Amino acid sequence: MQTDSPYTRRPTSFGPLRGSAADAVRSLVASARLAWAIEGNWAEPFYLAVYLVIRPLAFLGLFLAVLSIGGSLNPASIGFVVVGQAVFQIVGAALQGPTHALLDDRERYRTIRYIFATPSSLLPVSVGRALVKAAIAGISAAIVIGVGAILGMPLRSGGIDLILLTVVMLLGLLSIVGIGIALGAVCVQLRNDAWGYPQAVAGSVFLLCGAIFPLDTLPAPLQALGAALPITWWIEGVRRAILGTTSPGLLGTLATGELLLALLVGTLVILAVTPRLFKLGIDRARDKGYLDRNTAS
């Protein structure tokens, strides 16, 4: 008589947090330590540090070169581009982190099935991996902003508003990790090329959120779509905290309090929806046998 394994048996729903809060915290910490080991094991610490410095500066130099060709390179545009490009590195990392964690565990390490035998779930594991990627990107972002200041980027009079920066960074990080978690639950159900979807989504968001181009330069429908993204308000809040200036167009007409309210509402909506989307996505992937799939991609 054949008996079902704990992996295939479904006596209860998977749930976004199957175990206790303590189990979730332990899983998050363990996954964060694992993610740090994975991200840093391909090079010696010195060469890894060099990579973290050179890569973002290369992208920054490219964007500044394009602006200089168009004749629009001035201190204000330097600040707009530097802060937007720096912060968006965190967006890209947090979007890709959960998806790559799920796909790595499914196809490269073949460990995703064993998590079902533990008291916790995949949600804290995915969050831990995303936070480490975002933290590494944050180091690069700080380097880019520092270099921008050396190049003449005007900073806020009286220094950086640390309170505003802390609030918007916290809310922004929560929102983008939430979006990344939901995206990971979708990608784990895909048959082929799932690895490339987070990068495609990040590229689309890069255009819509005003990271490099003011929101008002986009067509009206895309402006509305960009304004609905909490990432847009996040980047604008970081610019105000560091530069002390507002972006041109719609974003610049809002008071900082209104901007924080919009960011808070958007973040709360994402945090309310994400666990349910994650549960639906992972439950469906398990029912269809997608968690055992190897796409060889």
Question: How would you describe the overall organization of this protein?
Answer:
This protein is mainly alpha-helical and 297 residues long. It has one domain (21-292). It has helices at residues 21-40, 45-69, 75-108, 112-115, 122-150, 162-187, 197-208, 220-227, 230-243, 250-253, 256-287. Helix 6 (162-187) runs parallel beside helix 11. The longest helix has 34 residues, at 75-108. The protein is globular and about 55 Å long. It starts with 20 loop residues before the first helix and ends in a 10-residue tail after the last helix.
How many helical elements? Answer: 11
Q: What is the subunit arrangement here?
A: single chain
The whole-angstrom Rg is 20 Å
Order of helices and strands: HHHHHHHHHHH
- Kindly give the count of domains: 1
Label the overall shape.
Answer: globular
Class by alpha and beta content: mainly alpha
Note the main sheet.
none
Between the first and last Cα atoms, what is the distance in angstroms? 37 Å
The helix content is: over 70%
Q: Beta fraction of the residues?
A: under 5%
**Count of β-strands:** 0
Low-confidence stretches: 1-16
Average pLDDT level: 83
Descriptive labels:
297 residues; mainly alpha; 70% helix; globular
Outline of this structure?
It contains eleven helices and no strands. It has about 300 residues and is mainly α.
